[in-house]
Amino acid sequence: MNRPASLEAPPGALARFFAGDVWHSFTHSPVAIVSALLVLLCAVSALFAPWLSPHDPFDLATLDLANSRLPPAWMPEGKASFMLGTDDQGRDILSALMYGARISLLVALAAVLASVVLGVGLGLLSGFVGGRLDAFIMRVCDVMLSFPAILVALLIDGVGRAMFPNAHESLAFAVLILAIALTGWVKYARTVRGTTMVERQKEYVQAARVIGVPSARIMRRHVLPNVLGPVLVLATIDVAQAVIIEATLSFLGVGVPPTSPSLGTLIRVGNDFLFSGEWWITVFPGAMLMLIALSVNLLGDWLRDALNPRLQ
Amino acid sequence: MLAFILRRLVQALAVMLVVAFIAFMLFQYVGDPVTNLLGQDATVEQRDMLRRDLGLDQPFFVQFAAFVGNALQGEFGMSLRQGQKVSTLILERLPATLELSLVAAVIALVVGIPLGVYAALRRGKLLAQTLMGLSLLGVSLPTFLIGILLILVFAVLLKWLPSFGRGDTVTLFGATSRWTTGLLTADGWKHMVLPAITLSIYQLALIMRLVRAEMLEVLRTDFIKFARARGLSNRAVYFGHALKNTLVPVMTITGLQLGGLIAFAIITETVFQWPGMGFLFIQAVQFADIPVMAAYLCLISLIFVIINLGVDLLYFAVDPRLRIERPGPAH
Amino acid sequence: MTMSQPLLQVRNLRVEFPNRHGTLLALDDISFDIAPGEILGVVGESGAGKSLTGAAIIGLLEPPGRVAGGQILLDGRRIDKLDADQMRQVRGRQIGAVFQDPLTSLNPLYTVGRQLIETIQTHLPLDARQARERAIDLLRQTGIPAPEARIAQYPHQFSGGMRQRVVIALALAAEPRLVVADEPTTALDVSIQAQIIALLRRLARDKGAAVMLITHDMGVIAETCDRVAVMYAGRIVEMGPVRDVIHQPAHPYTQGLMGSIPAMDEDRARLLQIDGAMPRLTAIPSGCAFNPRCPRVFDRCRAERPELLPATATLAACWLHAAMAEGAP
To answer: What pTM does this model have?
Structure first.
């Protein structure tokens, strides 16, 4: 006996992903390829910094004040072993920024992951259960959306500091990651809720419910694959935003603990040397930050256009 | 229409209550409320007296009501860091932030909207694509970095513009008022240029992208097709029909965004050491100065709620579909 | 048949859509005429190319679509090669257009009056007062009651049928000689459809405008048109006076179409269908496009593409009638 077509679950978005159009448009778009490569480059050099960087900026034994305040290698007083110059303590800027990027990326990725889990979870719940729970969650979303991300992050961070004044380093990181995560979950919740509500009406879901398939399984098997595409796009652009928020918080002095400087911290420290002419201490970490944010944004932009069925 | 306004007012009040609640929780349970109110140099007797006066043994709701009552009068206690009344501090800094935000908002709108329209109409051309690329840069660069770059170029290298502070200000509304303005002095304007541009760039880029995207959508609609089919001139089609239909949804989103400027000012003020509320707030966060944080939260929420309300009303005024309460007679 | 010069002449029109897979030929060698004051119906299934033909004539093909060959002449003057500004002057003044969905055809933010007056003043040298009077008059002619009051209302304040009347008024505002109506009644209730069609017909007759009525509804064609062209897979397969095409269809596709329409006075057990489906533009068979589905197919059909040949009372693109053409005395 044939099952009517409407009772078959549609193929998940992930399965369609590599099947044609998206991959094709990727390989044909120079912007996408370049930005993906840049992202890869930044990610690899950052995540593998301990092994790839020329010096270890945190090893006090290797620092020599005689090497301090050196300009980049291509300028008259620069040295080849310190490609991008050194700061006032003799730390190699290139190594510092690789380590800094590592911290920035790790914090951002952790925050986005937390954000996605929270947002997708709440969205599924909201869309599937409906009713008052849904209304409440949506209200919360509305209120949170009307506040800029940086404000929410600052508040949570500030409260965290007030509550735990002499926090251990990992607690400080946890508060930071939580603060950033709480700024971004709303868009996932909304998107997933929308899709969940649409899927919930479909016949194959109603049929599954009648048979007695547990809701969790329905949500996982049928709804999730359909939201992966949009969530992926949002998450990609979100990583860039998370990097920027973390950098901003660190620049303002309320981000990562000073013992683990991220790019934002480096920029803040370097800012003090702008007027004395040692611009490289702040400009290179700044450029790295810009590179990461820009390439991730470009990738996210391309991804959104590629996954948009209307532009085909 | 009246029902609509009432409903929105009620919603606004609900939001403010929630915010007040959060601020109250901060005040009471994060750190010590007595210290929050008296500052850190109070004696034991003063503290005990205040504890009784405050009725810290009173039920929760009574304390909350007292807090709200105080808040409505602008009374938030003493800053832990500065030892002054919070309300004084905020009032001193408010004009600086408002002026900066206003100028930045004007820049963002006056430059962003036309560029967005241009990028939509001349889609595919080199200049339009360059503009879109720049706008991507604008939303990718963190505000503080833009500020630093501008300082590097214009203050350090070229030495054209100052890099911190507000410059000469003039006191308005009589000598005893706290409202100072930098808009009336040339020096004030010189100091305003870099911070205002820095603050406006993110919004400008966002507005440009939004206007472009919306305009492209509108240009694909049937009524634009029909307008062309009627032989209307390009000017009539683009600037008469397409622009108006673009600006209506854009306007509401933009209004909300511009409210965010006041919050974004936190960063800009820090970079340029602009003596505004944002700078105050950052110092409060660094120092865990709860009263200031709570007060800032309430004030910002109030501003946002007012802007939201204003934008809703604006939408109402501009879109005729929302105005009519019953549909026309059916034939 | 009158011997006056046709108002619209379409000759060998080809429209193609280049995309990354290649170039799709959407309209393949379309030729027809419309005489002044005549109502020509263009009928066919979805995707047959009817709307594209209309779009090509008014010069509003959506990119990347483009006219790849052939000519379109209005009053003997070529209009397919005009530049943007010249074409703009033709639109509205010489050729008016009515589209399918009246709700989305009108700008929701402007009053009906403003949209009318704007159109009138674009093409006719009238001042504001005269334009307003003319707008009110147009609304009255299209059967909208109390036009003086309704001219200040917004589109969402009109019902569907009323909105389409406004759209027709807009299309006729500058007194065009030809109106291209693309599915003007499809989005309306059945009860309203008849009214709108009657209105269109009456106005066309009164103003002496020719109409190109594009639709998939044979009933509408039968009621309204003088002649009809049947389209299939981007080609015209039959063309002729409406009575003849309906009662003496010469092309097997048209025969199938007519046969599938249930008649009130017939007693039939099941609906007749044509087997198969219209081919996609990427997979048009060689020779006659209809040959895979044709009950009377023979070898020549698969090899050569037939032109419009004279059949009994109509022109049909079918090799069955080759004998007649070749054997004409």
So the answer is: 0.78
